[in-house]
Input
Amino acid sequence: MLREMPTAVVTGAGRGVGRAICSELAGRGYDIFATDIEEPLAADTAAALCVRGRPGPEIDAVSAKLDVRDEAECRGVASSCIEEFGALDLWVNNAGVLITGNAWEQDGSARKAMLDINALGTMNGTLAALDPMMSAGRGHVVNIVSLAGLVAAPGEVAYAASKHAALAFTLGTLFDLRRAGVRGVHLSAVCPDGIWTPMLNRRLADPGAAGSFSGKLLTAEEVAAEVGELTERPRPLLTIPRWRGAMVRLFDAMPGAMVRLTPLVMKDAERRQRRYKRLIESGRWPKRD
Output
């Protein structure tokens, strides 16, 4: 029997931001199709959402293995979601990978991994979702990008390049939809500051990742809450926190000045990274209720 509840596909749902987004959306009444390249992790996320007595509305959640680099797999998940729930209302492209280091020190496999997952994976998921959404005349694709998609990030150059591509594809596709007269389908790019997830928790002493600690280190739950709000009021671009978006745009608008200031900026970023390391290792951050 089909249910009259909104439905969401989330990629990279097995841990970190993806898992937190699933929980946030379930709390808002979404049935969840959790996907991850590690299927057991996706299954665990789905199972946790269906636990009896869980706060929030009663929802249904299923899971599947998904390698976002495979366009056919993405389209298969879109079809499976519609078969399972009767509709596809929201698709969140969250899967991503970060490999740090100077650009000239990274090999081709590292560059390819980030471009294939962060950029091509976002494209594959977006296009898989658009087919049924355009047919239905409604839907929303949310792409988790990064502030690195707005500014060149020292130590994370190939990562930033892949995120720039994801941002351009998101906004450009939205422009094309509106040019084609499609009004009911929305695309949003979410650009958060550094997030305390498994992607970063191994990098507290990694100088290549210092840029990710240079502003406000976020929790997965903070980002998920913003994504939840975005589903209620779609907008093309959301930076988290908003003031950091304005700051990095200013940096990006003055590349000459930024070249000269980079040593000072990164020195401060490394200082902040060390401070977060002390706070985290002492249990003083993040604060738990």
About this structure: Strands lie at 7-10, 31-36, 61-65, 90-93, 139-144, 185-192, 195-196, 218-219, 237-240. DSSP finds eight helices and nine strands in the chain. The two ends are 39 Å apart (CA to CA).
